[in-house]
Design brief:
The complex is a heterodimer of chains A (580) and B (77). Chain A has 580 residues and is of the alpha+beta class. In chain A, strands 2-1-6-3-4-5 form a 6-stranded mixed beta sheet. A 6-stranded mixed beta sheet of chain A has the order 8-7-12-9-10-11, sandwiched between helices. The longest helix of chain A has 21 residues, at 520-540. Chain A is globular, with a radius of gyration of 22 Å. Chain B is mostly beta strands and 77 residues long. Chain B has one domain (2-71): Ubiquitin-like (UB roll) (Roll), CATH 3.10.20.30. In chain B, strands 2-1-5-3-4 form a 5-stranded mixed beta sheet, with no helix packed on it. Classes of the chains: A alpha+beta (580), B mainly beta (77). At the A-B interface, helix 7 and helix 8 of A face loops of B.
């Protein structure tokens, strides 16, 4: 077992091990990545320079038998937002790191020769860095294939970047392999693949074949809390039935019917495209082709919202695709062909791109006239250009903001430089508050107001009115930050918001595992601590109130079908994170 | 009066004629719950009722040309 903190210097190739300092002792996942960034990284540093750090941190419960506890936090100063970033991914990486006793891998500095790429080999007995010229220029799928041939270890995990990360494009993601060793689960947001590329780190091989599950301090208490948690997830109709049956894309129809689906680059709130690419249609197509619904992206998942998508011939093509991906490449671009969208998803995963950022970018590209609305073949050709690194491909691979600015577009859907996801802030105002004020930039997962605005989970706050949205977003941002520290999948929140015993079980699992005595207030305080660190980092990086705003057109251009504008006031937005 | 009725996800089997939506002729003063009862949708199955894209409930009265979209508990993200 390791001491907890592993530092990898990519200039000297030295690896050092440290005990977890007391100040970070209670931290995991996002709490750990944001604390390391605040303590050790100059907020004014150049994101792709030697002074930025890239941190991989499993959650507090990752590697244990706690249900659905395998989420990985990846942190760095973002080259996309220029602020603090925690990007969260599923797949096997967090469970393996947890079992190896690693609380954080901190990747520092960068190679003197920018053309060199390395693989970090992480085993129970040793951690080494080896040069990997044979992987240079490969996409994530080929990279993992070559690594599997080299290490031939079925009980392993891989964290990799594709060509986008090597080229240090701002939409570059970091891929984590799933249980089938496919690079389908990405730390997508914020361009952290570019940071990994800047450090010359092409891949991380994770081998936990010689270690076993982490053991709790109080086995009985932990087992009882885990059982209570799993039962609550199974009993809740969303986590126990809706998500496993239809996956995340079950949202397509309801968000569209509610007039909250950003269509045609956020020009309207509903579209006829939606019904053709809905979760129901996807579900039926997957089963017809021998794919799989109810698939878990990591060991220990009890929700199973992932799916396996086969092509028309019944051969594996990609996972999901997920709702956000289908929206971004589909209705946002007036594309209504699930097969074409699945190809785009596969390409994004392979090249190593954030699917939300790339779909939003293609919408902006259509707005700019680079290609026609609905041109699926054109999008696929442009994605090929991103992978090839042509001049246009590099512009597109740098995201919606860069693309829009290069082409003189005045309707660019970003906050803090990051593309807005699949919900319209003008007709779902709670999510608009989160987009505007999250230290992460426009990020639906940072405070998922859709739950209460649209889905009636955790109560109901009218999405079309400004009243109640600030409090809703604030509470969700705090709760989300805390969940992101545990390694639990954020989808547990649907049960937690409705079932008190699910929330109790979270701190009871932590208590049983670590021998602590946490209560509900401690969970809230953990969330606040994380947000305080992130806001402090951003302010030192030069952010102020003006950065906590939506694009001007959200307040001035009414959105069909409800003809609303975002009407939460600036003063109210400035009060969202008033506890920092 | 004619209304446009749409069922989604696990409610799809309750739609007459094996379709995802239909146009139903209902009497004046009919509310959301009464239409669903008529189509034998168990009252504990639907969770969200959108009338012309706005959240409604079982007591909301319908009017000519309304679009009623009905969902079981769903979520994603």
């Amino acid at each position: 077992m390791y001491k907890g903190i592993v530092r990898v210097n990519m200039k000297t190739l030295e690896i050092t091990h440290e005990d977890v300092p007391e100040k970070w002792g209670a931290f995991g996942g996002r709490a750990m990545t944001s604390a390391v960034l605040l303590d050790e990284v100059d907020p004014l540093c150049i994101p792709l320079g030697k002074n930025n750090k890239l941190i991989f941190a499993p959650g507090l419960l990752s590697g244990s038998s706690a249900p659905i506890s395998g989420r990985l936090s990846v942190g760095a100063k973002s080259p996309l937002t220029l602020g603090i970033k925690e990007s969260n991914a599923g797949g096997q990486a967090a469970q393996i790191l947890g079992r190896l006793g690693i609380r954080a891998i901190i990747v520092e500095d960068k190679p003197e020769d920018p053309g060199k790429f390395y693989t970090l080999e992480v085993r129970a007995g040793s951690i080494t860095v080896v040069e990997c010229p044979e992987l240079k220029g490969l996409g994530n799928y080929d990279t993992v294939d070559k690594l599997m041939a080299k290490y031939s270890d079925k009980k392993a995990g891989y964290i990799t970047i594709g060509q986008a990360g090597e080229m240090k494009l701002l939409a570059a993601s970091i891929a984590c392999t799933d249980r089938e060793l496919r690079p389908t689960r990405h730390a997508g947001r914020g361009g952290l693949g570019a940071v990994m590329g800047s450090k010359g780190l092409k891949a991380i091989f994770l081998d936990d074949s010689e270690v076993s599950m982490r053991q709790p301090v109080d086995k009985e208490a932990f087992r009882a809390a885990s059982k209570k948690f799993a039962k609550a997830l199974k009993e809740h109709p969303v986590t126990g039935e809706g998500l496993p049956t239809y996956g995340t894309n079950v949202l397509m129809n309801i968000v569209n019917e509610a007039g909250g689906l950003p269509a045609k680059n956020f020009r309207t709130g509903s579209t006829d495209c939606a019904a053709k690419v809905s979760g129901e249609v996807q579900h039926d197509m997957i089963l017809e082709r021998g794919g799989k619904v109810a698939h878990g992206c990591h060991s220990g998942c009890v929700i199973q919202c992932s799916r396996i998508w086969n092509d028309k011939d019944g051969n594996y093509l990609t996972k999901g695709p997920e709702y956000e991906t289908i929206w971004a490449h589909g209705p946002n671009c007036e594309i209504d062909d699930l097969d074409a969208i699945a190809i785009m998803d596969r390409m994004d995963d392979d090249i190593g791109l954030d699917t939300i950022e790339m779909g939003a970018t293609m919408g902006v590209a259509m707005e700019a006239g680079i290609l026609e609305w609905g041109d699926a073949d054109g999008v696929i050709k442009l994605l090929e250009e991103v992978g090839q690194g042509t001049p246009l491909g590099r512009i597109l691979g740098s995201g919606a903001k860069v693309t829009g600015e290069c082409y003189g577009v005045d309707h660019i859907p970003v906050v803090k430089g990051q593309a807005m996801p699949a919900y319209e802030p003008r007709s779902i105002m709670g999510i608009g508050v989160t987009y505007a004020t999250s230290p992460q930039g426009a990020d639906h997962t940072a405070g998922y107001a859709i739950a209460t605005n649209i889905l009636k989970v955790g109560g109901f706050v009218d999405p079309l009115k400004p009243e109640g949205q600030v409090e809703l977003s604030r509470n969700l941002q705090i709760a989300t930050a805390a969940i992101d520290a545990t390694g639990l999948c954020l989808f547990v929140a649907f049960a937690v918001l409705d079932k008190p015993e699910a929330f109790e079980a979270i701190y009871e699992m932590l208590n049983g595992f670590y021998g602590l005595n946490l209560g509900p207030d401690d969970v809230t305080e953990l969330g606040k601590t994380i947000l305080r660190a992130e806001v402090k980092f951003n302010r030192a990086a030069g952010f102020n109130e003006a950065d906590d705003r939506l694009p001007e057109w959200c307040m001035t251009e009414p959105l069909a079908p409800h003809n609303t504008v975002f009407s939460v006031t600036d003063d109210e937005l400035d009060s969202v994170l008033d506890f920092v | 009066m004619i209304i446009n009725l749409k069922f989604f996800a696990s409610l799809r089997p309750y739609m007459p004629g094996d379709k995802d939506e239909s146009w139903v002729d209902v009497q004046m003063e009919t509310n959301v719950g009464e239409v669903l009862d008529y189509l034998k949708v168990p009252p504990d199955k639907p969770k969200i009722y959108l009338l012309n894209g706005v959240h409604a409930d079982r007591e909301t009265l319908l009017k000519e040309g309304d679009v009623l979209s009905v969902f079981p508990p769903v979520a994603g993200g």
